[in-house]
Design goal:
The complex is a heterodimer of chains A (about 100) and B (about 200). With about 100 residues, chain A is of the alpha+beta class. Chain A has a single domain, classed as Orthogonal Bundle (Arc Repressor Mutant, subunit A), CATH 1.10.10. Chain A is about 60% helix and about 15% strand. A two-stranded antiparallel ribbon of chain A has the order 1-2. In chain A, strand 1 and strand 2 form a beta hairpin. In chain A, helix 1 packs across helix 3 and helix 1 crosses helix 4. Chain B folds into 2 domains: about 60 residues, no CATH class; about 100 residues. Chain B is built from 8 helices and no strands. Chain B is elongated. Classes of the chains: A alpha+beta (about 100), B mainly alpha (about 200).
Chain lengths: ~100, ~200
């Protein structure tokens, strides 16, 4: 898959996972990896970007004697998901159009 | 490779980055290793799952501000030159050559950037000029009706309707076009940045 497209999709996947509750790095990877290939090196810059775009907020909480960073979705993060869904309805139309042809 | 070795190597590879950035990055990866171990993985396996350390360092670097990237590139080439004095002498003697080249590069990049923005501003100016002219014509039309006569006034109001129509027709395509152009500046800036990121590691 095209790397930019993949990054864009993972961004939305992160936001989607966070809509069902706050989460942390490794849990996000576990939740997203059944749907799209993801590793820490891809996730980390995405989390940073989402944080600086104010789509998620970060806080630390103690877990098993160490600090763990948790991520929480913001309102603009939720708006981004809706925007994505709207945009992709158009993409899916194009996809259907391309798929009509038999490429043998 | 165990956790301590991994973190040490990663720290070395990104040591030229701002201190707070290095700390944040290391704590993110340390946390992930701990979580994987807690999940039942062995330490070496947990580190292995994080992927190639060079790829990790590159991913982090791409997101850095361009000034830091240029600074790093300069430092790299300076380190590569074994004789530091020679490098300094060359740098000073070479001023007539590299200074104009660097200046030309900077000016070209800025020129492209500003040109794109100039186009965006002019598109806005044209479209809003339609709107202002429409409002102006309505006012002129009303005044004319009382001073110059009904037909002259009607002419102005007709013109204002045409202008308002032009505004309504162009306003949406204009927003679309401007959005694309803002993205274009982003893409251009990314491309300039990519010139300063080494291509040794595949993305």
């Amino acid at each position: 898959m095209d790397i930019q497209l993949k990054r864009g999709l993972i961004e939305i996947c992160v936001l989607k996972v966070l809509t069902s509750g706050d989460s942390y790095g490794y849990q996000l990877i576990k939740d997203i990896s059944p749907h799209i290939e993801i590793s820490e090196s891809t996730l980390y810059p995405i989390l940073k970007r989402l944080e600086s775009a104010d789509m998620l907020s970060v806080y630390s909480s103690e877990h098993a004697g160490r600090l763990r960073k948790y991520y929480r979705i913001t309102d603009s993060g939720k708006d981004r998901i809706l925007e994505f869904i709207k945009e992709w309805q158009e993409v899916m139309k194009v996809y259907q159009f391309i798929k009509e042809e038999k490429y043998e | 490779m165990n956790k301590a070795e991994f973190l040490k190597e990663l720290k070395n590879k990104i040591s030229d980055m701002p201190y707070s950035e290095v700390e944040k990055t290391l704590s993110f990866y340390a946390e992930s290793i701990d979580d994987r171990i807690e999940d039942g993985m062995g330490e070496d396996e947990a580190v292995f799952c994080l992927g190639d350390i060079d790829a990790i360092a590159k991913e982090i670097r791409v997101d850095l501000p361009i000034t830091t990237l240029i600074g790093k590139k300069v430092k790299q080439s300076r380190d590569r030159a074994s004789n530091k004095t020679l490098w300094i002498v060359l740098a000073i003697c070479g001023i007539p050559f590299w200074l104009p080249i660097a200046a030309a590069f900077t000016v070209t990049v800025l020129a492209v950037y500003f040109s794109i923005w100039a186009v965006i501003i002019s598109i806005y100016a044209v479209v809003f000029a339609f709107a202002f002219a429409a409002i102006g014509s309505v006012l002129a039309g009303i005044i004319c009706m009382f001073t110059a006569g009904f037909y002259q006034g009607a002419l102005f109001i007709g013109a204002s309707l045409c202008l308002a129509g032009l505004f309504i027709m162009t306003v949406r395509p204009m927003f679309w076009l401007c959005k694309k152009m803002v993205r274009l500046t982003g893409t251009f800036f990314k491309w300039v940045k990519s010139l300063f990121v080494s291509k040794e590691v595949k993305a």
